[in-house]
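Batch 3, record 17
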Amino acid sequence: MRVFWKAIHLNLKVFFAYPKGFLISMVIHPIILALNIALFTSIYKYNGTTEIQGYDLTQMIWYYAVTTFVWIFTFNFADRRMSNYILSGELGPMLLRPISVFRFELANAIALRTAGVLFEFVPDMIIYSLIYPPVFLTLLSFGKFLVVIVLAFVLHFLLKFLIGMCAVVTQNNAGLNNVLTAAMTLLGGAMIPLEFFPDWLKTLCGVLPFQYIFYKPVQFFLNHGEAVSTGHWLATIGMQILWCGVLYVLGRIVWTVLTRKIVIAGG
Amino acid sequence: MSRLSGLLRLYVWHMKLSVSRAMMYRFDFITGLLISIAVSGIGPFVQYLYFTHTRGYPGWTLDQVLLFQGLLLLWFGLRDLLFGDLRGTVMNMVWKGEFDRLLLKPYPPIGVLLCSGFQLNGIGSCIAGVSLSVLAYTRLHLDFDIWSAPLLLVMLVSGVVLFMGITIIYCAIVIMLVQMGRIGEMLDMVTNFGNYPINIYPALLQMAMVTFLPFAVWTYYPAQILLHRADGDLWLAAACCFAVFGLSLVVWNRCLRKYTSAGG
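Prediction for the assembled complex:
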Protein backbone atom coordinates (compact mmCIF):
# COMPACT_ATOMS: atom_id res chain seq x y z
CA MET A 1 0.00 0.00 0.00
CA ARG A 2 2.92 2.31 0.78
CA VAL A 3 4.21 1.87 -2.78
CA PHE A 4 0.71 2.63 -4.10
CA TRP A 5 0.51 5.91 -2.16
CA LYS A 6 4.03 6.80 -3.28
CA ALA A 7 2.96 6.26 -6.88
CA ILE A 8 -0.04 8.60 -6.37
CA HIS A 9 2.24 11.16 -4.75
CA LEU A 10 4.76 10.89 -7.59
CA ASN A 11 2.07 11.36 -10.25
CA LEU A 12 0.50 14.25 -8.35
CA LYS A 13 3.86 16.00 -8.28
CA VAL A 14 4.03 15.81 -12.07
CA PHE A 15 0.59 17.42 -12.42
CA PHE A 16 1.27 20.11 -9.83
CA ALA A 17 4.47 21.00 -11.67
CA TYR A 18 2.35 22.21 -14.62
CA PRO A 19 -0.75 23.87 -13.16
CA LYS A 20 -1.33 26.37 -16.01
CA GLY A 21 -3.17 23.80 -18.12
CA PHE A 22 -5.80 23.40 -15.43
CA LEU A 23 -6.07 27.17 -14.99
CA ILE A 24 -6.82 27.68 -18.70
CA SER A 25 -9.72 25.26 -18.37
CA MET A 26 -11.26 27.71 -15.87
CA VAL A 27 -11.51 30.21 -18.72
CA ILE A 28 -12.68 27.79 -21.40
CA HIS A 29 -15.39 25.99 -19.39
CA PRO A 30 -17.52 29.13 -18.75
CA ILE A 31 -17.33 29.89 -22.50
CA ILE A 32 -18.67 26.42 -23.22
CA LEU A 33 -21.44 26.96 -20.65
CA ALA A 34 -22.35 30.32 -22.20
CA LEU A 35 -22.55 28.72 -25.66
CA ASN A 36 -24.73 25.91 -24.27
CA ILE A 37 -27.05 28.44 -22.62
CA ALA A 38 -27.43 30.28 -25.95
CA LEU A 39 -27.97 27.03 -27.86
CA PHE A 40 -30.60 25.51 -25.57
CA THR A 41 -32.42 28.78 -24.91
CA SER A 42 -32.84 29.11 -28.66
CA ILE A 43 -33.98 25.48 -29.08
CA TYR A 44 -36.51 25.67 -26.22
CA LYS A 45 -37.82 28.96 -27.58
CA TYR A 46 -38.25 27.54 -31.10
CA ASN A 47 -39.97 24.45 -29.73
CA GLY A 48 -42.28 26.67 -27.67
CA THR A 49 -42.06 24.38 -24.67
CA THR A 50 -40.78 24.48 -21.11
CA GLU A 51 -39.82 20.79 -21.08
CA ILE A 52 -38.20 18.43 -23.57
CA GLN A 53 -38.33 14.75 -22.59
CA GLY A 54 -38.89 15.74 -18.95
CA TYR A 55 -35.98 18.19 -18.76
CA ASP A 56 -36.62 21.88 -18.24
CA LEU A 57 -34.20 24.42 -19.69
CA THR A 58 -32.04 24.66 -16.56
CA GLN A 59 -31.76 20.88 -16.26
CA MET A 60 -30.91 20.49 -19.95
CA ILE A 61 -28.15 23.11 -19.76
CA TRP A 62 -26.80 21.51 -16.62
CA TYR A 63 -27.11 18.02 -18.14
CA TYR A 64 -24.25 18.85 -20.48
CA ALA A 65 -22.34 20.77 -17.80
CA VAL A 66 -22.50 17.74 -15.48
CA THR A 67 -21.43 15.50 -18.36
CA THR A 68 -18.25 17.61 -18.44
CA PHE A 69 -17.93 17.12 -14.68
CA VAL A 70 -18.20 13.36 -15.18
CA TRP A 71 -15.31 13.51 -17.65
CA ILE A 72 -13.32 15.55 -15.10
CA PHE A 73 -13.97 12.97 -12.38
CA THR A 74 -13.44 9.83 -14.41
CA PHE A 75 -11.24 10.45 -17.45
CA ASN A 76 -7.92 8.59 -17.59
CA PHE A 77 -5.31 7.56 -20.14
CA ALA A 78 -4.80 3.92 -19.05
CA ASP A 79 -5.55 2.62 -22.55
CA ARG A 80 -3.16 4.97 -24.35
CA ARG A 81 -0.44 4.56 -21.73
CA MET A 82 -0.60 0.76 -21.99
CA SER A 83 -0.32 0.98 -25.77
CA ASN A 84 2.68 3.31 -25.43
CA TYR A 85 4.35 0.88 -23.00
CA ILE A 86 3.98 -1.89 -25.59
CA LEU A 87 5.13 0.21 -28.56
CA SER A 88 8.13 1.72 -26.75
CA GLY A 89 9.16 -1.49 -25.01
CA GLU A 90 8.74 0.13 -21.57
CA LEU A 91 6.45 -2.68 -20.44
CA GLY A 92 9.46 -4.92 -19.73
CA PRO A 93 10.96 -2.74 -16.97
CA MET A 94 7.43 -2.02 -15.67
CA LEU A 95 6.83 -5.73 -15.07
CA LEU A 96 9.96 -5.79 -12.88
CA ARG A 97 8.77 -2.94 -10.63
CA PRO A 98 7.68 -3.60 -7.02
CA ILE A 99 4.19 -2.41 -7.97
CA SER A 100 1.93 -4.09 -10.52
CA VAL A 101 1.11 -2.33 -13.79
CA PHE A 102 -2.56 -2.26 -12.77
CA ARG A 103 -1.86 -0.55 -9.44
CA PHE A 104 0.60 1.89 -11.01
CA GLU A 105 -1.93 2.88 -13.66
CA LEU A 106 -4.66 3.19 -11.03
CA ALA A 107 -2.35 5.45 -8.99
CA ASN A 108 -1.74 7.57 -12.09
CA ALA A 109 -5.47 7.83 -12.79
CA ILE A 110 -6.24 8.77 -9.16
CA ALA A 111 -3.53 11.44 -9.19
CA LEU A 112 -4.74 12.76 -12.54
CA ARG A 113 -8.32 13.02 -11.34
CA THR A 114 -7.38 14.47 -7.95
CA ALA A 115 -5.65 17.33 -9.74
CA GLY A 116 -8.60 17.58 -12.18
CA VAL A 117 -11.18 17.77 -9.38
CA LEU A 118 -9.19 20.40 -7.47
CA PHE A 119 -8.31 22.61 -10.44
CA GLU A 120 -11.29 22.03 -12.74
CA PHE A 121 -14.38 20.74 -10.95
CA VAL A 122 -14.26 22.97 -7.85
CA PRO A 123 -13.73 26.27 -9.71
CA ASP A 124 -16.13 25.25 -12.49
CA MET A 125 -18.84 24.35 -10.01
CA ILE A 126 -18.51 27.77 -8.37
CA ILE A 127 -18.36 29.71 -11.67
CA TYR A 128 -21.21 27.73 -13.29
CA SER A 129 -23.42 28.19 -10.22
CA LEU A 130 -22.85 31.93 -10.34
CA ILE A 131 -23.61 32.14 -14.08
CA TYR A 132 -26.61 29.78 -14.13
CA PRO A 133 -27.70 28.72 -10.61
CA PRO A 134 -28.61 24.99 -10.33
CA VAL A 135 -31.95 25.53 -8.60
CA PHE A 136 -32.66 21.78 -8.61
CA LEU A 137 -29.55 20.87 -6.62
CA THR A 138 -29.82 19.87 -2.96
CA LEU A 139 -27.10 18.87 -0.51
CA LEU A 140 -28.47 15.32 -0.54
CA SER A 141 -28.48 15.02 -4.34
CA PHE A 142 -24.95 16.40 -4.48
CA GLY A 143 -23.84 13.88 -1.84
CA LYS A 144 -25.46 11.05 -3.83
CA PHE A 145 -23.65 12.29 -6.95
CA LEU A 146 -20.27 12.28 -5.19
CA VAL A 147 -20.62 8.65 -4.09
CA VAL A 148 -21.84 7.48 -7.50
CA ILE A 149 -19.14 9.39 -9.36
CA VAL A 150 -16.34 7.70 -7.38
CA LEU A 151 -17.62 4.30 -8.49
CA ALA A 152 -18.06 5.69 -12.02
CA PHE A 153 -14.36 6.57 -11.95
CA VAL A 154 -13.45 2.98 -11.00
CA LEU A 155 -15.70 1.62 -13.76
CA HIS A 156 -14.25 3.97 -16.36
CA PHE A 157 -10.71 3.06 -15.30
CA LEU A 158 -11.39 -0.69 -15.46
CA LEU A 159 -12.85 -0.35 -18.96
CA LYS A 160 -9.88 1.71 -20.13
CA PHE A 161 -7.44 -0.74 -18.58
CA LEU A 162 -9.15 -3.63 -20.38
CA ILE A 163 -8.76 -1.78 -23.69
CA GLY A 164 -5.18 -0.98 -22.69
CA MET A 165 -4.46 -4.69 -22.25
CA CYS A 166 -5.70 -5.36 -25.79
CA ALA A 167 -2.57 -3.51 -26.95
CA VAL A 168 -0.63 -6.67 -26.06
CA VAL A 169 -2.35 -8.27 -29.07
CA THR A 170 -2.95 -5.27 -31.35
CA GLN A 171 0.06 -3.08 -30.26
CA ASN A 172 -1.84 0.06 -31.20
CA ASN A 173 -5.28 0.13 -29.59
CA ALA A 174 -6.54 3.50 -30.87
CA GLY A 175 -9.31 1.84 -32.91
CA LEU A 176 -10.67 -0.14 -29.97
CA ASN A 177 -10.44 2.94 -27.79
CA ASN A 178 -12.57 4.84 -30.32
CA VAL A 179 -15.22 2.12 -30.02
CA LEU A 180 -15.20 2.35 -26.25
CA THR A 181 -15.41 6.15 -26.29
CA ALA A 182 -18.22 6.11 -28.84
CA ALA A 183 -20.14 3.44 -26.91
CA MET A 184 -19.65 5.26 -23.62
CA THR A 185 -20.71 8.65 -24.93
CA LEU A 186 -23.72 7.41 -26.93
CA LEU A 187 -25.01 4.50 -24.82
CA GLY A 188 -23.91 6.15 -21.57
CA GLY A 189 -26.03 9.21 -22.29
CA ALA A 190 -23.22 11.73 -22.64
CA MET A 191 -24.30 12.83 -26.13
CA ILE A 192 -28.04 12.95 -25.61
CA PRO A 193 -30.19 11.98 -22.59
CA LEU A 194 -31.29 8.34 -22.72
CA GLU A 195 -34.95 9.47 -22.63
CA PHE A 196 -34.60 10.30 -26.36
CA PHE A 197 -33.76 6.67 -27.21
CA PRO A 198 -36.31 4.18 -28.56
CA ASP A 199 -37.33 1.45 -26.07
CA TRP A 200 -35.13 -1.27 -27.60
CA LEU A 201 -32.05 0.92 -27.25
CA LYS A 202 -32.97 1.87 -23.70
CA THR A 203 -33.19 -1.85 -22.90
CA LEU A 204 -29.75 -2.39 -24.43
CA CYS A 205 -28.32 0.50 -22.37
CA GLY A 206 -29.83 -1.10 -19.28
CA VAL A 207 -27.69 -4.23 -19.63
CA LEU A 208 -24.44 -2.35 -20.36
CA PRO A 209 -22.23 -0.59 -17.80
CA PHE A 210 -21.92 2.73 -19.63
CA GLN A 211 -24.99 4.43 -18.12
CA TYR A 212 -23.43 3.95 -14.67
CA ILE A 213 -20.52 6.15 -15.77
CA PHE A 214 -22.47 9.07 -17.27
CA TYR A 215 -26.25 8.95 -17.18
CA LYS A 216 -26.78 7.84 -13.57
CA PRO A 217 -24.34 10.32 -11.97
CA VAL A 218 -25.89 13.11 -14.05
CA GLN A 219 -29.39 12.08 -12.91
CA PHE A 220 -28.38 12.20 -9.23
CA PHE A 221 -26.79 15.60 -9.70
CA LEU A 222 -29.90 16.92 -11.51
CA ASN A 223 -32.16 15.35 -8.87
CA HIS A 224 -34.22 14.14 -11.82
CA GLY A 225 -36.80 11.37 -12.17
CA GLU A 226 -36.07 8.17 -10.25
CA ALA A 227 -32.85 9.69 -8.90
CA VAL A 228 -34.85 11.46 -6.20
CA SER A 229 -35.38 8.18 -4.30
CA THR A 230 -32.74 6.77 -1.96
CA GLY A 231 -33.72 3.23 -2.97
CA HIS A 232 -32.77 3.95 -6.57
CA TRP A 233 -29.47 5.43 -5.40
CA LEU A 234 -28.65 2.27 -3.41
CA ALA A 235 -29.63 0.09 -6.38
CA THR A 236 -27.36 2.14 -8.64
CA ILE A 237 -24.44 1.76 -6.22
CA GLY A 238 -25.12 -1.97 -6.10
CA MET A 239 -25.03 -2.22 -9.89
CA GLN A 240 -21.87 -0.15 -10.09
CA ILE A 241 -20.12 -2.40 -7.55
CA LEU A 242 -21.32 -5.45 -9.44
CA TRP A 243 -19.95 -4.11 -12.74
CA CYS A 244 -16.66 -3.14 -11.07
CA GLY A 245 -16.35 -6.70 -9.74
CA VAL A 246 -17.13 -8.25 -13.14
CA LEU A 247 -14.67 -5.99 -14.98
CA TYR A 248 -11.96 -6.48 -12.35
CA VAL A 249 -12.21 -10.28 -12.54
CA LEU A 250 -12.30 -10.11 -16.34
CA GLY A 251 -9.24 -7.87 -16.28
CA ARG A 252 -7.34 -10.29 -14.02
CA ILE A 253 -8.15 -13.23 -16.29
CA VAL A 254 -7.19 -11.35 -19.45
CA TRP A 255 -3.95 -10.11 -17.84
CA THR A 256 -2.99 -13.63 -16.73
CA VAL A 257 -3.58 -14.96 -20.25
CA LEU A 258 -1.89 -12.08 -22.03
CA THR A 259 1.24 -11.86 -19.87
CA ARG A 260 2.17 -15.29 -21.24
CA LYS A 261 2.07 -13.86 -24.76
CA ILE A 262 3.82 -10.53 -24.19
CA VAL A 263 6.63 -9.80 -26.62
CA ILE A 264 8.76 -6.83 -25.59
CA ALA A 265 9.83 -4.72 -28.56
CA GLY A 266 11.26 -1.28 -29.10
CA GLY A 267 13.33 0.56 -26.50
CA MET B 1 8.47 29.71 -52.49
CA SER B 2 11.24 27.09 -52.28
CA ARG B 3 10.41 26.72 -48.58
CA LEU B 4 6.78 26.03 -49.39
CA SER B 5 7.64 23.42 -52.01
CA GLY B 6 10.11 21.88 -49.56
CA LEU B 7 7.41 21.70 -46.90
CA LEU B 8 5.01 20.12 -49.38
CA ARG B 9 7.63 17.47 -50.21
CA LEU B 10 8.04 16.88 -46.49
CA TYR B 11 4.28 16.50 -46.11
CA VAL B 12 4.16 13.90 -48.90
CA TRP B 13 7.05 12.06 -47.25
CA HIS B 14 5.17 12.04 -43.94
CA MET B 15 2.07 10.78 -45.74
CA LYS B 16 3.99 7.82 -47.14
CA LEU B 17 5.43 7.11 -43.70
CA SER B 18 1.98 7.26 -42.11
CA VAL B 19 0.57 4.83 -44.70
CA SER B 20 3.50 2.44 -44.10
CA ARG B 21 2.91 2.68 -40.33
CA ALA B 22 -0.80 1.98 -40.78
CA MET B 23 0.05 -1.09 -42.86
CA MET B 24 2.47 -2.27 -40.17
CA TYR B 25 -0.42 -2.39 -37.66
CA ARG B 26 -2.89 -3.67 -40.24
CA PHE B 27 -5.33 -5.17 -37.75
CA ASP B 28 -5.62 -1.90 -35.88
CA PHE B 29 -5.93 0.08 -39.11
CA ILE B 30 -8.67 -2.08 -40.62
CA THR B 31 -10.63 -2.28 -37.36
CA GLY B 32 -10.06 1.47 -36.93
CA LEU B 33 -11.39 2.12 -40.43
CA LEU B 34 -14.50 -0.02 -39.94
CA ILE B 35 -15.02 1.46 -36.52
CA SER B 36 -14.71 5.04 -37.70
CA ILE B 37 -17.29 4.36 -40.44
CA ALA B 38 -19.63 2.83 -37.86
CA VAL B 39 -18.98 5.52 -35.25
CA SER B 40 -19.63 8.21 -37.87
CA GLY B 41 -23.26 7.17 -37.82
CA ILE B 42 -23.67 8.38 -34.25
CA GLY B 43 -23.95 12.11 -35.05
CA PRO B 44 -26.69 11.69 -37.67
CA PHE B 45 -28.44 9.17 -35.39
CA VAL B 46 -28.48 11.67 -32.50
CA GLN B 47 -29.86 14.34 -34.83
CA TYR B 48 -32.52 11.89 -36.00
CA LEU B 49 -33.50 11.18 -32.38
CA TYR B 50 -33.62 14.89 -31.68
CA PHE B 51 -35.76 15.65 -34.74
CA THR B 52 -38.23 12.86 -33.99
CA HIS B 53 -38.77 14.09 -30.41
CA THR B 54 -38.88 17.85 -30.99
CA ARG B 55 -39.68 20.41 -33.69
CA GLY B 56 -36.00 20.38 -34.65
CA TYR B 57 -34.08 23.52 -35.63
CA PRO B 58 -35.63 26.63 -37.19
CA GLY B 59 -35.39 26.52 -41.00
CA TRP B 60 -34.09 22.94 -41.19
CA THR B 61 -35.88 19.75 -42.17
CA LEU B 62 -34.59 16.30 -41.24
CA ASP B 63 -33.15 15.66 -44.74
CA GLN B 64 -31.43 19.05 -44.74
CA VAL B 65 -29.89 18.31 -41.35
CA LEU B 66 -28.74 14.92 -42.63
CA LEU B 67 -27.02 16.71 -45.53
CA PHE B 68 -25.43 19.02 -42.94
CA GLN B 69 -24.32 15.97 -40.93
CA GLY B 70 -22.87 14.31 -44.04
CA LEU B 71 -20.81 17.40 -44.83
CA LEU B 72 -19.78 17.58 -41.18
CA LEU B 73 -18.50 13.99 -41.29
CA LEU B 74 -16.68 14.72 -44.54
CA TRP B 75 -15.05 17.74 -42.91
CA PHE B 76 -14.06 15.67 -39.83
CA GLY B 77 -12.54 13.06 -42.15
CA LEU B 78 -10.55 15.61 -44.15
CA ARG B 79 -9.39 17.33 -40.98
CA ASP B 80 -8.19 14.05 -39.44
CA LEU B 81 -6.65 12.93 -42.71
CA LEU B 82 -4.64 16.15 -43.08
CA PHE B 83 -3.76 16.97 -39.48
CA GLY B 84 -5.17 14.19 -37.26
CA ASP B 85 -1.82 13.09 -35.90
CA LEU B 86 -0.47 16.55 -35.18
CA ARG B 87 -1.63 17.07 -31.60
CA GLY B 88 -0.16 13.81 -30.34
CA THR B 89 3.08 14.46 -32.21
CA VAL B 90 3.65 17.95 -30.82
CA MET B 91 2.73 16.90 -27.27
CA ASN B 92 5.14 13.96 -27.37
CA MET B 93 7.90 16.12 -28.82
CA VAL B 94 7.60 18.85 -26.21
CA TRP B 95 7.10 16.40 -23.32
CA LYS B 96 10.22 14.44 -24.26
CA GLY B 97 12.31 17.50 -25.15
CA GLU B 98 12.50 16.50 -28.82
CA PHE B 99 10.92 19.74 -30.01
CA ASP B 100 14.32 21.49 -29.74
CA ARG B 101 15.50 19.50 -32.77
CA LEU B 102 12.97 21.31 -34.96
CA LEU B 103 14.57 24.64 -34.10
CA LEU B 104 17.73 23.51 -35.92
CA LYS B 105 15.99 22.46 -39.14
CA PRO B 106 16.12 24.57 -42.32
CA TYR B 107 12.32 25.00 -42.33
CA PRO B 108 10.15 26.96 -39.86
CA PRO B 109 9.29 24.68 -36.88
CA ILE B 110 5.54 25.26 -37.25
CA GLY B 111 5.78 24.30 -40.93
CA VAL B 112 7.53 21.04 -40.04
CA LEU B 113 4.91 20.35 -37.37
CA LEU B 114 1.99 21.00 -39.73
CA CYS B 115 3.60 18.62 -42.21
CA SER B 116 3.63 15.78 -39.68
CA GLY B 117 -0.12 15.54 -39.07
CA PHE B 118 -1.29 13.13 -41.80
CA GLN B 119 -3.39 10.30 -40.37
CA LEU B 120 -4.82 7.66 -42.68
CA ASN B 121 -7.62 6.76 -40.23
CA GLY B 122 -9.53 9.90 -41.26
CA ILE B 123 -10.51 8.13 -44.47
CA GLY B 124 -13.29 6.25 -42.64
CA SER B 125 -15.10 9.47 -41.78
CA CYS B 126 -14.63 10.72 -45.35
CA ILE B 127 -16.30 7.60 -46.76
CA ALA B 128 -19.20 7.90 -44.32
CA GLY B 129 -19.51 11.66 -44.98
CA VAL B 130 -19.61 11.32 -48.78
CA SER B 131 -22.15 8.47 -48.56
CA LEU B 132 -24.49 10.36 -46.22
CA SER B 133 -24.17 13.62 -48.18
CA VAL B 134 -25.00 11.90 -51.49
CA LEU B 135 -27.95 10.10 -49.89
CA ALA B 136 -29.37 13.27 -48.31
CA TYR B 137 -28.71 15.32 -51.47
CA THR B 138 -30.59 12.77 -53.58
CA ARG B 139 -33.52 12.72 -51.15
CA LEU B 140 -33.71 16.51 -51.32
CA HIS B 141 -34.01 16.45 -55.17
CA LEU B 142 -31.71 19.46 -55.52
CA ASP B 143 -30.20 20.69 -58.80
CA PHE B 144 -26.46 21.19 -58.72
CA ASP B 145 -25.56 24.74 -59.73
CA ILE B 146 -22.21 24.95 -61.59
CA TRP B 147 -21.27 28.05 -59.53
CA SER B 148 -21.56 26.01 -56.35
CA ALA B 149 -18.32 24.15 -57.15
CA PRO B 150 -15.92 27.14 -56.87
CA LEU B 151 -17.80 28.38 -53.79
CA LEU B 152 -17.42 24.98 -52.14
CA LEU B 153 -13.72 25.02 -53.00
CA VAL B 154 -13.34 28.46 -51.37
CA MET B 155 -15.06 27.15 -48.24
CA LEU B 156 -12.83 24.06 -48.18
CA VAL B 157 -9.62 26.10 -48.48
CA SER B 158 -10.86 28.60 -45.87
CA GLY B 159 -11.84 25.75 -43.56
CA VAL B 160 -8.42 24.12 -43.83
CA VAL B 161 -6.70 27.49 -43.27
CA LEU B 162 -8.88 28.13 -40.19
CA PHE B 163 -8.16 24.69 -38.80
CA MET B 164 -4.44 25.24 -39.38
CA GLY B 165 -4.74 28.51 -37.43
CA ILE B 166 -6.48 26.80 -34.51
CA THR B 167 -3.88 24.01 -34.58
CA ILE B 168 -1.04 26.55 -34.53
CA ILE B 169 -2.60 28.20 -31.46
CA TYR B 170 -2.84 24.73 -29.87
CA CYS B 171 0.86 24.11 -30.62
CA ALA B 172 1.73 27.52 -29.12
CA ILE B 173 -0.13 26.58 -25.94
CA VAL B 174 1.67 23.22 -25.81
CA ILE B 175 5.15 24.73 -26.00
CA MET B 176 4.21 27.20 -23.27
CA LEU B 177 2.42 24.84 -20.86
CA VAL B 178 4.15 21.49 -21.61
CA GLN B 179 1.43 19.55 -19.71
CA MET B 180 -1.84 20.09 -21.59
CA GLY B 181 -4.25 18.08 -19.46
CA ARG B 182 -7.67 18.29 -21.11
CA ILE B 183 -7.15 21.59 -22.93
CA GLY B 184 -7.23 19.91 -26.34
CA GLU B 185 -10.57 18.39 -25.47
CA MET B 186 -11.88 21.72 -24.28
CA LEU B 187 -10.82 23.43 -27.51
CA ASP B 188 -12.73 20.68 -29.31
CA MET B 189 -15.77 21.43 -27.17
CA VAL B 190 -15.64 25.05 -28.30
CA THR B 191 -15.17 24.17 -31.98
CA ASN B 192 -17.99 21.61 -31.63
CA PHE B 193 -20.44 24.51 -31.57
CA GLY B 194 -19.70 24.72 -35.31
CA ASN B 195 -21.36 21.30 -35.58
CA TYR B 196 -24.80 22.93 -35.48
CA PRO B 197 -26.39 25.22 -38.07
CA ILE B 198 -25.39 28.69 -36.92
CA ASN B 199 -28.85 30.16 -37.50
CA ILE B 200 -30.10 28.40 -34.36
CA TYR B 201 -27.88 30.66 -32.21
CA PRO B 202 -28.79 34.19 -31.09
CA ALA B 203 -27.81 36.97 -33.54
CA LEU B 204 -24.68 38.03 -31.65
CA LEU B 205 -23.35 34.48 -31.58
CA GLN B 206 -24.20 34.02 -35.26
CA MET B 207 -22.05 37.04 -36.05
CA ALA B 208 -19.25 35.62 -33.89
CA MET B 209 -19.40 32.32 -35.81
CA VAL B 210 -18.88 34.22 -39.04
CA THR B 211 -16.19 36.65 -37.87
CA PHE B 212 -14.39 36.03 -34.59
CA LEU B 213 -14.77 32.23 -34.64
CA PRO B 214 -15.69 31.57 -38.31
CA PHE B 215 -16.61 27.90 -37.78
CA ALA B 216 -19.47 28.45 -40.25
CA VAL B 217 -17.07 27.76 -43.16
CA TRP B 218 -16.62 24.12 -42.13
CA THR B 219 -20.16 22.86 -42.62
CA TYR B 220 -22.82 25.54 -42.39
CA TYR B 221 -21.90 27.47 -45.53
CA PRO B 222 -21.13 24.38 -47.66
CA ALA B 223 -24.59 23.06 -46.71
CA GLN B 224 -26.19 26.42 -47.47
CA ILE B 225 -24.41 26.53 -50.85
CA LEU B 226 -25.80 23.11 -51.78
CA LEU B 227 -29.25 24.15 -50.56
CA HIS B 228 -29.00 27.33 -52.72
CA ARG B 229 -29.43 29.71 -49.79
CA ALA B 230 -25.92 30.96 -49.03
CA ASP B 231 -25.61 34.67 -48.29
CA GLY B 232 -22.78 37.17 -48.93
CA ASP B 233 -21.46 36.72 -45.38
CA LEU B 234 -19.62 33.61 -46.53
CA TRP B 235 -16.97 35.87 -48.10
CA LEU B 236 -16.58 37.66 -44.77
CA ALA B 237 -16.23 34.29 -43.03
CA ALA B 238 -13.60 33.16 -45.56
CA ALA B 239 -11.60 36.38 -45.06
CA CYS B 240 -11.81 35.96 -41.27
CA CYS B 241 -10.33 32.44 -41.57
CA PHE B 242 -7.19 33.92 -43.12
CA ALA B 243 -7.16 36.61 -40.41
CA VAL B 244 -7.31 33.91 -37.70
CA PHE B 245 -4.45 32.09 -39.45
CA GLY B 246 -2.34 35.28 -39.55
CA LEU B 247 -3.09 35.94 -35.89
CA SER B 248 -2.13 32.38 -34.96
CA LEU B 249 1.28 32.84 -36.62
CA VAL B 250 1.85 36.02 -34.56
CA VAL B 251 0.90 34.13 -31.37
CA TRP B 252 3.13 31.20 -32.34
CA ASN B 253 6.18 33.42 -33.01
CA ARG B 254 5.72 35.21 -29.68
CA CYS B 255 5.42 31.92 -27.78
CA LEU B 256 8.40 30.46 -29.62
CA ARG B 257 10.56 33.38 -28.44
CA LYS B 258 9.56 32.54 -24.84
CA TYR B 259 10.06 28.79 -25.26
CA THR B 260 12.44 27.44 -22.62
CA SER B 261 12.57 23.73 -23.55
CA ALA B 262 11.35 20.82 -21.44
CA GLY B 263 11.78 17.09 -20.94
CA GLY B 264 14.87 15.26 -22.06
